[in-house]
């Protein structure tokens, strides 16, 4: 299913399980069902081939920033809403507001064959601003408590410039251990630029 958001210059398409995605009055909402997640264990555990989570993704061109305030209806450990980057089935990344495991936390996962997992900072309440940016083969993750001052979280790549230039980018919901959760995204913004400085808070 294709979804058009007036805030974005590219169309979005649904991937994975049904996320019941809806957009109204500037707010996007999606729902993760029970035990839905995207994570490839790095320690050699068997991966459930059916493991997946609802995603709503599109293909921006060139340099960009995708920004949204994310609000998660937490009910179980690791419930999360995320901005998501997809280059290949084992080459993707997510920037999450996650209940990790009992306090809202900004965390990241970068998957290159297998997934890593890193926590950044904790958040009071159930909302935070997230931003994913791209220039060339590089991606950057930032987060903000107020939408004004941005904390640098991560800089990484998922392949060659040709591969990353064709990346799909957008939104994801997850509930790995729970019975599901609702995530909303508002203040969605697209900028056709790379941040001027990754570490100065802008």
TrEMBL record:
Q: What SUPFAM superfamilies does the database record attribute to this sequence?
A: Concanavalin A-like lectins/glucanases (SSF49899)
Q: What Pfam families does its record include?
A: DUF1349 (PF07081)
Write down the InterPro entries for this protein, in alphabetical order. ConA-like_dom_sf, DUF1349, UCP022704
Q: What is this protein called?
A: Regulation of enolase 1
Species whose genome carries this gene: Streptomyces naganishii JCM 4654
Classification from the root reads: Bacteria, Bacillati, Actinomycetota, Actinomycetes, Kitasatosporales
């Amino acid at each position: 299913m294709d979804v058009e958001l007036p805030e974005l210059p590219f169309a979005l398409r649904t991937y994975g399980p049904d996320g019941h995605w809806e957009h109204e009055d500037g707010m996007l909402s999606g729902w993760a069902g029970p035990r839905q997640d995207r994570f490839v264990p790095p320690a050699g555990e068997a991966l459930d081939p059916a493991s997946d989570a609802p995603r709503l993704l599109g293909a921006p061109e060139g340099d960009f920033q995708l920004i949204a305030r994310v609000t998660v209806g937490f009910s179980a450990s690791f419930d999360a809403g995320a901005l998501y980057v997809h280059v290949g089935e084992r080459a993707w990344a997510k920037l999450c507001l996650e209940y990790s495991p009992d306090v809202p936390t900004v965390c990241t996962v970068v998957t290159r064959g297998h997934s890593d997992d890193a926590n950044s900072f904790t958040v009071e309440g159930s909302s935070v601003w997230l931003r994913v940016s791209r220039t060339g083969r590089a991606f950057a993750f930032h987060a903000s408590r107020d939408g004004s001052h941005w904390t640098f979280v991560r800089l990484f790549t998922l392949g060659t410039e040709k591969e990353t230039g064709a990346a799909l980018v957008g939104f994801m919901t997850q509930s790995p251990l729970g019975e599901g959760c609702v995530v909303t995204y508002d203040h969605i913004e697209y900028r056709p630029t790379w941040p001027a400085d990754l570490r100065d808070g802008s």
